[in-house]
Amino acid sequence: MNLDDFEQLVRSRRAVRRFRPDPVPEETLGRLLEATRWAPSGYNLQPARLHVVRDEELRGRLFTACLDQKQVREAPCVVVFTGDRKCFRAKRFARILAMDLEAGAINEQYKSFISQIVPLAFGRAPLGLGGLAKRLMVPAMRLLKPTPDLPAFQMDFWLAKQVMLGAMNFMLAAHAAGLATVPMEGFDPVRVRQVLALPRSETVILVVALGHEAGEGLTKTRLPLEEYVVEH
Ligand SMILES: Cc1cc2nc3c(=O)[nH]c(=O)nc-3n(C[C@H](O)[C@H](O)[C@H](O)COP(=O)(O)O)c2cc1C
Fold first, then answer.
1. pTM
2. What are the sequence ranges of the domains in the chain?
3. What is the CATH number of domain 18-85+163-219?
């Protein structure tokens, strides 16, 4: 694929709200989920969870949780993107580090660096400090040296950044496969959680309906590039 093809792909993808009932081929769906898996994430922590909902009855219940947005009932497949608030737990993180090291994705030096950073950035109470003390540490340290905000205290924000990158991969891959999607933030997260019996550690980030477009023939617009770009 060259840049022309890529531009054509991103410019022709649209949010589609009318779907035909034809099912999404299993093999294609698998490839879309794979494309999602290969999205980047901070420290390669891979917090995204993809809940695939094809069952009609369950989609009917999701439709209600998604504020009666009809695409949730019409599309043959709905994927609920969540982020795992416990993605940094020690055993799991050690597994990722070992995989990365063995594959040559990171070196020993980087491994030992992030082995220290991740528990500090994500855990709420290292070094015997309570969460509040740690929260106060950031502005205090910032007076002395550049200090990042800690995911520990804005976990849902951190998760949203990670999960949305995968969701975009998913939507572009679907479009490349001739399928249509619509991303949705119009849902009641408490009800989505109940319908899918999600663990408490998962935050619902985005719901995406997937299927074959019923032919709305929509176009799209964007504000001019000058309103996006700020030269410094
Ligand atoms: C984070 C996010 C949430 C959205 N939520 C909804 C939604 O709940 N319902 C809906 O019909 N469209 C939703 N949309 C679709 C937008 O309305 C649509 O992407 C936008 O109008 C631009 O159109 P395009 O996707 O065709 O380029 C959402 C889009 C994004 C990125």
1. 0.96
2. 18-85+163-219, 90-153
3. 3.40.109.10
